[in-house]
Amino acid sequence: MCRQIMLQTVFIFLLIFQFADSLIAEDKNVHLATDPWAPFYGPELKNGGFFTEIVRESFKRSGYKLSVDFVPWKRAVVQSKEGKFDGLLGAFHTKERETFYIYSNPISTSSLVFVTKKERDIKYTTLKDFKNYQIGTIRGYTYSPGFDNAAYLHKQPVQDVRINIKKLLKGRIDIIIDSRAVILNILKKEFPDHIDSLKIIEPPLKVNSLYVPISKRIENAQQIVDALNKGLQAIIEDETYFNILESYGF
């Protein structure tokens, strides 16, 4: 009888520990959202892209597991603000977003450029030089305070940069703005016959840092950011960060 009671007690304790472990594991999951933005991140990329792998490894060092949903950008922003996602995988910093998010340390950078057709003689010194042109943008994106607030510019927002490239090639818009790496990646993979048809208008508008903003609606938001920053520092110090970049050709 005593032996049976002891076995039952041990079994109960095992169940309690398993339940506690499952709760801890659940608390250690981070669920982020973003839209596909190759070569930084995307569902079709190896390990979700180099940016995703860096963030995943950083969280792993601090005991967290990362999951990512690739959805339209506007939905990612709206639902992360509401706390339906824990945050965004990759976003530029803005003062307005500080209202809704706690930002991680910078993860990577992106050079924002203007692109036009090669035969067009379009140059700029200031943004006002673009006031007579139609500019393709992405709905919900932020670029720079100067560009975002330039009401005199004719911006045509769409959902995806591929749409803008097609519109540019067909002459329906004059310029597109996006990440240099993203545009070149898409041209190389999806529009190889048109690579020589387009050109980058120098200089870049801005070199932006890319962060992981965590929603303030999440109860342990600061804890998650601190864990990511700690893990990021660890993989930089032991050069895992740079090894990841090298494995993707950067």
SSE sequence, one letter per element: HEHEHEEEEHEHEHEEHH
Low-confidence stretches: 5-26
Query: What percentage of residues falls in helices of 4 or more residues?
Result: 25-40%
Beta percentage is 15-25%
Domain module tally: 2
Q: Going by CATH, what is the homologous superfamily of the largest domain?
A: Periplasmic binding protein-like II
Mean pLDDT across residues: 90
CATH topology of the largest domain: D-Maltodextrin-Binding Protein, domain 2
| Biggest β-sheet strands, sense, barrel | 5 strands, mixed
Helix/strand structural class: alpha/beta
Outline of the structure:
The chain is α/β, with parallel strands linked by helices and 250 residues long. Helix content is 38%, strand content 23%. It has 2 domains: 2-107 and 211-247, D-Maltodextrin-Binding Protein, domain 2, CATH 3.40.190.10; 110-209, Periplasmic binding protein-like II (D-Maltodextrin-Binding Protein, domain 2).
Keywords, please?
250 residues, alpha/beta, D-Maltodextrin-Binding Protein, domain 2, 2 domains, five-stranded mixed sheet, 8 helices, 10 strands
List the helices and strands and how they pair.
Layout: H1 2-27, E1 29-34, H2 50-61, E2 65-70, H3 73-81, E3 87-88, E4 101-103, E5 108-117, E6 134-138, H4 145-148, E7 154-158, H5 161-169, E8 175-179, H6 180-190, E9 198-210, E10 213-215, H7 221-237, H8 240-247
Parallel strand pairs: 1-2, 1-3, 6-7, 6-8
Antiparallel strand pairs: 4-10, 5-8, 5-9
